[in-house]
Amino acid sequence: MMRQFRNKIFVLLIIPLALMLAEPKIINVGDKAKSITLFRLNDHTYFRTKDLLGKKHIVISFFATWCGPCTKELPYLIQLSEELSEDDFEFVLIDLKEKQDKVQSYVDKMKIPFQIILDKYGRTFESYGGESLPLVVVIDKDGMISYYHTGYVDGDEIILKKHLESL
């Protein structure tokens, strides 16, 4: 009898805890950005957002090679990176859970001019509340999230451009 009671109490305590931990992380514009430290695709050195804080705004797009909307968004990100000052902006693509050779082949084919970072296990994507791709996050020079957008439809690039020009 006592054992059944303990099992019921255990279940009643564990279920709410598991549900709390399983909830997606909620990220809002104005939140302090989580630090990112991941390997670069090209030279396997670390990319660290903390190295850019106070120097540049960081435009991050979480993507995957199989993601149609990511591929559609990419030319606009490249165009924005060419139009905006390299002194003020750092554009970064963070690949989600793919093998390096597949990502490298995609980067070569698409002629991507900015840094490619590997989120091998998807932990950084999850820590940014990621649920679908692409996910664009802008971290301002002060380390705050100034823009957060999931998905891509025609016209999103105009909104992003206006935001970046306002920084």
UniProtKB/TrEMBL annotation:
<dbReference type="InterPro" id="IPR050553">
    <property type="entry name" value="Thioredoxin_ResA/DsbE_sf"/>
</dbReference>
<dbReference type="GO" id="GO:0017004">
    <property type="term" value="P:cytochrome complex assembly"/>
</dbReference>
<keyword id="KW-0201">Cytochrome c-type biogenesis</keyword>
<protein>
    <recommendedName>
        <fullName>Thioredoxin domain-containing protein</fullName>
    </recommendedName>
</protein>
<dbReference type="InterPro" id="IPR013766">
    <property type="entry name" value="Thioredoxin_domain"/>
</dbReference>
<dbReference type="GO" id="GO:0016491">
    <property type="term" value="F:oxidoreductase activity"/>
</dbReference>
<dbReference type="InterPro" id="IPR013740">
    <property type="entry name" value="Redoxin"/>
</dbReference>
<dbReference type="Pfam" id="PF08534">
    <property type="entry name" value="Redoxin"/>
</dbReference>
<dbReference type="GO" id="GO:0030313">
    <property type="term" value="C:cell envelope"/>
</dbReference>
<dbReference type="InterPro" id="IPR017937">
    <property type="entry name" value="Thioredoxin_CS"/>
</dbReference>
<dbReference type="InterPro" id="IPR036249">
    <property type="entry name" value="Thioredoxin-like_sf"/>
</dbReference>
<feature type="domain" description="Thioredoxin">
    <location>
        <begin position="27"/>
        <end position="167"/>
    </location>
</feature>
